Amino acid sequence: MAHTRVYRNGVLEAEGFPVAAVSDHLADPAATVWLDFCAPTEADLAAISEELGLHPLAVEDAVHEHQRAKLDRYDSHAFLTAYSAKLDDATGTLVVSELAAFITGQALVTVRKDENFAIDAVAARWDSAGELAKNGVGFLLHGLLDYVVDGHFEVVQALDEQIEHLEDLVFDERPRYTDMQRRSFALRKSLVQVRRVVLPMREVVNAIMRRDLHVVDGEMQPYFQDVYDHVLRASEWTESLRDLVTTIRETQLNIQGNRLNTIMKKVTSWAAIIAIPTAVTGFYGQNVPYPGFQSTAGFWTSTLVILLLSVGLYLSFKKRDWL
Length: 323
What we know:
Elements: E1 3-8, E2 11-15, H1 22-26, E3 31-38, H2 46-52, H3 56-63, E4 70-73, E5 78-87, E6 94-103, E7 107-112, H4 119-128, H5 137-170, H6 177-198, H7 200-208, H8 221-284, H9 296-319
Parallel strand pairs: 3-7
Antiparallel strand pairs: 1-2, 1-3, 4-5, 5-6, 6-7
């Protein structure tokens, strides 16, 4: 079941009509048509492909998944691939959804690879900016890209908050190293995925804004420039967060190493203190006569020696901050 809309002279005239009626609407130069398919096959796109003169390679890319974010230009149309993104706050993992779009002079055809891409949210953006509908396909394309890029920006912002929380865990008095390592690995993996979908959008939006593509007119130019600025901010933010996660991981390892050194220093110091009573009692445990042998004086002498040497060694270690 495809979503369909037709705008005529900047006014939403009809929606939900059969795909077979698209050719009737396109016969009017004042009409702009939107079609949306979810997980179609090449056979599903065959009729509209012939109607709009879509290139077979573009149709093949629209059906198959895992295309890179790009903008390809053909004689009769342009082909766009982009990804929406959403962050799972509980696990720190990223959920991405692929979208393909055919851009012609009078029509925008979107092809979603799954239901995770919220096309209804895109339609809501079009409805909220109806005064721009007179700009045709440029208006539809702007709403689509604006939704995708804003989603990227929200993901990057959420990752920033997750990383700030991770920073607090690093300097916790009782850090849980296993949880921190798992969380930092998940965030780093999500940042790599975000980088793959965000960075190519700079070239995509920049290419769409070129005048020789004839998609963005003068009135829509500032709106696409705003989308491009958001793309740049999201890209720069992603790069800085990637460096920050690496720094946090290195800091975590340094703190863990320092704490281990402190623990080893304390254990070694206490072992040295415990060695004093062992040495003294070992001496007085000899089976040969010595001063105080088999007398109460010998017991008190050994006890005093143990106390004096242990306290002296403890104070010496404490002064050196070993304990």
